[in-house]
C-alpha cells in the first residue's frame, strides 16, 4: 500500500550528514541576507552586489540581448530583475520565471511624523501591510530608509542595528492599569494612531531666542547634525521602523530559524541564489524580486507594473519573435510563503491539507480567501509537470492550503502573472507566526526550496 498512499517526508528524518551540512551552511548565508536587508531597498542593493560579482551587467532598455547574456534591472532601487538569456528558442521554450517579493509588514513614518507631548518627542507611523498591531509595542525597533533632498541627493538612514546604536520603542500599558484595555478585542487593543515611536526626552538646551527649548527641536538638531536634513525633508522620505532583532537559530537542535522578514525573503533568497548558482544555459531565466506585495502589488515597483511585460517584450524583440508566444510558453513559480501547521493553534487548519515544518517546499494550487477569491488556482497539468520535475531531482516537497476554508485566507503575486497567459503556481517556505515581528521557518524547508528552484531553471 505504500505506493498507493501519499505521505509527507520530514527532511531531517532522512537527511545524511552531507545534506545536513548543506542545509545549515545555506542558512548561514540567508541569515546575513536577512540582517543586511530589512527593507526592499537594502535587499536590492545586496542582490545587485551579488549579481555583479557573478558577472551580471546592468540592463538599459534598447540594449540588444543575445544568448549567454546575464543582466539585472534594478527598478528604482526597490524591485530587482535577474535575467539569464538561454540558448533555447524562447518562442517555443518560453521563460522560466521565479517571482518573489522583498517587502515585509512594518511601520512607515508619516510624511510629517515628529511631534512632542508632555516632554517626549514622538513619531507618527502608518502601518504597512497586514500586521497585528499589538505585536509591535514594547519591542526594540530600528529606523531604516532614505531621505531624498531637493538638490537630487539621497541620504541613507539606518539607526538601531549596531551594538552602539540606540533603538526605538512604542509604549504599551502596564498590566496594573490595563483593565479596560484587556476587555477590548485583540485587534483593537492598540489602535493604529497609538503606534507612536519614542524618539527622545531631552529638551534642546542650546536654544537661542529664535529657537525652541523643546525635545522635538533637540531631535531635529540631532538629525540635522548627522544627516543634514530638516523637518521639511521628511516630506520626501521613505523611513520605516523595523524590529531591531537579528536572525537567530531557534531550539536546542538549531533546526529552525527566527527573524523579522521571512515573508517573503525566505523565498527571495533561494530564488536569486538559484539563479546565480545554476550554470546551465539552455533555458532563459527571469527571477523577480518585487515590491509592494503586502499592499496589493501596486505602483511602479509592484508586480502589477508594466515593467514585467516590458522586459519580456525586450527579450522577444531581441530574437524577432512574438511576445505573446513567449508568454504562452513560459512557466512561473510564484515563490511566496505559506502558513505552517502550528500545534499551538490546530483549530485554524485542516490537518490533511496543511503544510508542515521541515517537510519541504510547500506547493499551493490555490490561495485566496474562503471561496478561492483572489486566487490564481493553477491548472492540474502544470502541477503534474512540477511533480515529475521535483521527484526526478530529489526535491522534498508537500502540498497544502492556507488554513480552513472559512477561517480567512491571503493572496500572492501569482494572479498578476497568470493574467498574461503564463502558467503559474505558488510554492514557498512554510512559516510560523507569519507577519509578526519575529517569524520562524525550518532551515530544511529553506534549502528544499532552493533545490526546487534550481531544478526548475536548469
Question: What can you tell me about this protein's structure?
Answer:
Belongs to the peptidase M18 family. Keywords: Aminopeptidase, Hydrolase, Metal-binding, Metalloprotease, Protease, Zinc. Its EC number is 3.4.11.-. This is M18 family aminopeptidase. The chain is an alpha/beta fold and 458 residues long. The chain folds into two domains: 292 residues, Aminopeptidase (3-Layer(aba) Sandwich); 138 residues, Aminopeptidase i, Domain 2 (Roll), CATH 2.30.250.10. The protein contains twelve helices and 22 strands. The strands form five sheets. The chain has a nine-stranded mixed β-sheet. It has a six-stranded antiparallel β-sheet with strand order 8-7-10-5-6-9. Strands 11-12-22 form a three-stranded antiparallel β-sheet. Helix 2 crosses helix 12 and helix 7 crosses helix 12. The radius of gyration is 23 Å and the shape is globular. The two termini are 34 Å apart.
Amino acid at each position: 500500500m505504500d505506493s498507493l498512499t501519499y505521505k509527507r517526508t520530514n527532511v531531517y528524518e532522512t537527511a545524511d550528514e552531507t545534506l545536513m551540512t548543506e542545509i545549515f551552511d545555506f542558512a548561514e548565508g540567508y541569515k546575513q541576507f536577512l540582517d543586511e536587508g530589512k527593507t526592499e531597498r537594502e535587499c536590492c542593493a545586496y542582490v545587485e552586489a551579488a549579481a555583479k560579482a557573478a558577472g551580471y551587467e546592468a540592463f538599459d532598455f534598447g540594449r540588444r540581448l543575445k544568448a549567454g547574456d546575464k543582466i539585472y534591472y534594478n527598478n528604482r532601487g526597490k524591485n530587482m530583475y535577474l535575467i539569464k538569456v538561454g540558448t533555447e528558442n524562447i518562442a517555443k521554450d518560453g521563460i522560466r520565471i521565479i517571482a518573489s517579493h522583498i517587502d515585509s509588514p512594518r511601520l512607515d513614518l508619516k510624511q510629517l511624523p515628529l511631534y512632542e507631548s508632555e516632554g517626549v518627542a514622538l513619531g507618527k507611523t502608518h502601518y504597512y501591510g497586514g500586521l497585528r498591531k499589538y505585536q509591535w509595542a514594547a519591542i526594540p525597533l530600528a529606523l531604516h530608509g532614505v531621505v531624498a533632498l531637493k538638490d537630487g541627493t539621497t541620504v541613507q538612514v539606518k539607526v538601531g542595528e549596531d551594538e552602539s546604536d540606540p533603538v526605538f520603542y512604542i509604549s504599551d500599558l502596564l498590566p496594573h492599569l490595563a483593565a479596560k484595555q484587556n476587555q477590548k478585542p485583540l485587534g483593537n487593543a492598540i489602535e493604529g494612531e497609538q503606534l507612536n515611536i519614542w524618539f527622545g526626552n531631552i529638551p534642546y538646551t542650546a536654544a537661542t531666542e529664535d529657537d525652541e527649548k523643546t525635545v522635538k527641536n533637540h531631535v531635529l538638531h540631532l538629525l540635522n547634525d548627522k544627516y543634514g536634513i530638516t523637518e521639511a525633508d521628511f516630506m520626501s522620505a521613505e523611513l520605516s521602523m523595523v524590529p531591531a532583532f537579528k536572525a537567530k537559530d531557534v531550539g536546542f537542535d538549531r533546526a529552525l530559524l527566527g527573524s523579522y522578514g521571512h515573508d517573503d525573503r525566505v523565498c527571495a533568497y533561494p530564488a536569486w541564489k538559484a539563479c546565480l548558482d545554476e550554470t546551465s544555459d539552455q533555458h532563459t531565466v527571469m527571477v523577480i524580486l518585487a515590491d509592494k506585495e503586502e499592499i496589493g502589488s501596486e505602483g511602479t515597483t509592484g508586480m502589477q507594473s508594466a515593467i514585467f511585460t516590458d522586459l519580456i517584450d525586450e527579450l522577444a524583440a531581441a530574437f524577432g519573435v512574438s511576445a505573446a508566444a513567449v508568454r504562452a510558453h513560459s512557466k512561473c513559480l510564484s515563490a511566496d510563503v505559506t502558513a505552517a501547521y502550528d500545534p499551538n493553534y490546530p483549530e485554524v487548519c485542516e490537518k490533511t491539507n496543511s503544510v508542515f515544518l521541515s517537510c519541504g517546499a510547500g506547493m499551493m494550487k490555490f490561495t485566496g480567501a474562503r471561496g478561492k477569491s483572489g486566487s490564481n488556482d493553477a491548472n492540474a497539468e502544470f502541477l503534474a509537470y512540477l511533480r515529475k520535475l521535483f521527484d526526478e531531482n530529489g526535491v522534498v516537497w508537500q502540498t497544502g492550503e492556507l488554513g480552513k476554508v472559512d477561517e480567512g485566507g491571503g493572496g500572492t503575486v501569482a494572479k498578476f502573472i497568470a493574467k498574461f497567459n503564463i502558467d503559474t503556481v505558488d510554492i514557498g517556505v512554510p512559516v510560523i507566526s507569519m507577519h509578526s515581528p519575529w517569524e520562524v521557518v525550518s532551515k530544511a524547508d529553506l534549502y528544499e526550496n532552493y533545490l526546487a528552484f534550481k531544478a526548475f531553471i536548469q
